[in-house]
Amino acid sequence: RTNLSRQRPSRSIHHRSTDVRASVVVMVLSLRPRQRHAVIELLNLTKNSNKSSIAASFGANADADADEANNYKLLILDAFTHDVIAPLVTVKDLRDHGVTLHLRLRQEREQIPDVPAVYFVSPTPENVKAISGDFANSLYDAYHLNFASALPASALEELATSAVRGGVDGRVKCVRDQYLGYVSLEDDLFDLAIDDGYRLLHDPRVAEKDVERLIANVTTGLFSACVTLGQVPVIRSQRGGAAEMVAKELESRIRDALAQRDNPFEGGLRAQYGGSSVQRPLLCLFDRNFDLTAMLQHAWTYQPLVHDVLRMRLNRVDVDADAPTGVTTGAKPKSYTLEHSDPFWAENASAQFPKVAEEVEAELAKYKEAIKRVNAQAAMADGDADALGNSTAKLADAVQSLPELQEKKRVIDKHTNIATALLGSIKQRGLDEYYAIEEDLLVGKGDKPSVMSLLQATGRGSAEDKVRLAIVYTLSATEGILPQDAEEIEGALRASGANTSALAYVKRMMSLNASLKNMSGGGDAGHRRSNSSQGNILEWADKLYGQSINTITKGVKNLLSGERVLPIAVAFDALMANQPGPETADYAYLDPKAPHGKPVGPREGDPAFHDGIVFVIGGGNYLEYRSLVELKSRERANVRSVVYGSTSLCHSETFLSTLASLGAAAS
User: Fold this and answer.
1) Planar angle of CA 12, 15, 17, nearest 5 degrees
2) What distances in angstroms separate CA 571 from CA 176, 284, 552, 575, 642, one per listed residue?
3) Helices of type H across 430-500
4) Order of strands, edge to edge, in the sheet holding 183-186?
5) Amino acid 601: pLDDT
6) How many CB atoms lie within 10 A of CB 66?
7) DSSP code string of 74-136
8) Who's near 494: CB < 8 A, 6+ residues apart?
9) Which tens digits make up the pLDDT trace of 439-488?
């Protein structure tokens, strides 16, 4: 049997990663530059400097490997890792690093015998089987195997056996656990591309093994993010639900990793830049039901609007510039990338939409003025016949400024088209009205007549807009809604042609939570699986839902101070203070570095945390991300840097559809 063995990824810094150094200095927790650096090293076939290379075990020639890194190569991806690299590198970047073709692992591929292949895939049984098939068919000249998370020992054995059987064991150059199993969308924003997380956790028909698999996948993604950051966090989580399950499994996995000889947290960026001397970050885990309103509320700032209305995905958005509503017609839509390399996006992503519209006009005016100056310089150069040198200099200045102006025009056109599409939807659906009413509701100033004016069939907005408003109204009514008012709301929704299953689901869960509170201490009936649907729901809710549904109204009350801060930001700020008290007493405290079995928790006078990670299980959105980012600018906050993550960044209408399907299933 071959001595095929895995390698840890190289995390040494070479000349290609100077951008990482700058970002680490500015922001201790900066995930995306580190992940991009790791992907570039993967593409460059960079060997792990502090571990023996698998190539040596097969007698490979070092000079030949160096030549191979500089030659053309193929990149083999699966659906998940395609999404991982999509926001990190462009097609041009791939070409610059020698990748001439990128292919999907699970698609039929032809033999290309003289070219090395770099695999970057998830370590699933299906993918291992597909790679074994490539060995058997001898598809490529060399195989560089990189896995998004740790490859199980059994899968490694299977690969070794198939490599020997296919006669390609000498051509398998490396097997590396890369710990890159997440999607970085900003330096401080990531998700795990788990789109059905909320449904799996809250549908009583889902098998226990599927819930356990979800918990394991979330833990794996969070572990990867921590390894990339080179940080071992202190963990706080809500009790009694999926957040606590993930917290316990993550603590165990990190504790086991720290005890390994080849500890993945050692070395790399942390050692290079003194990360070990920096105070450890705090990882705060929340269940989605901590605040459902954030998933359904209408947005009014640029980035959340683009995500929700134009359905931005992987930092790209498609816009039909000819359609006033932004809804694509028969014409091919224009596709735009929205990243912080775009100066307008970087400056205005958190701005309210009217401000964005003003800035687009202002930038267009500046561009027109600059064009006038260039034309004037060119005209002066033509007319300055007495001073040839001066004429040439003026013309050169004019020509030199053209590329910059062309790029500025491209950015202006992009955001003009995006803003036009948003404006069409705002006018058609009355999104400004929904936003204003929901904001009033969430600070305790809303009233039923204003809500009903939009819920009526004559009110503006889609059926989904109306249901979202109805749910926000229901959740914001901390003292509850009168039965006749609830009936009137449902009647208005039905008259508008809306599906009320999502509203019924939320009301059922709020009612169920009240029942569970009354049943507390009343025996173990809630922990037994009953054959009746009532028993199933109670058992599932008691296990996964009891505490988190209760905090919906608690979170809303936090808003009544007059400061519009989302509940998750309020809770995170309190946890970062790292002091004992009633606000944080309900959160579990886990420290993977603490002696096993020793009680841990914040003590009076402990220093506050300054760097934190917030992760929401069951879906997240840009409203919460923006609310957390704004904490850094608040004088009272302890936050220096914060990373926001979730199982997926979910569009509001998609989340509403999930609630509706759960409501229909429970009815």
Assistant:
1) 70
2) 38, 9, 12, 6, 13
3) 431-442, 448-455, 463-476, 483-495
4) 183-186, 189-191, 641-646, 611-617, 282-287, 234-238, 587-590
5) 86
6) 12
7) EEEE-HHHHHHHTTT--HHHHHHTTEEEEEETTS----EEEEEEEEEE---HHHHHHHHHHHH
8) 500
9) 999 988 878 999 999 999 988 999 999 999 999 999 998 777 888 999 99
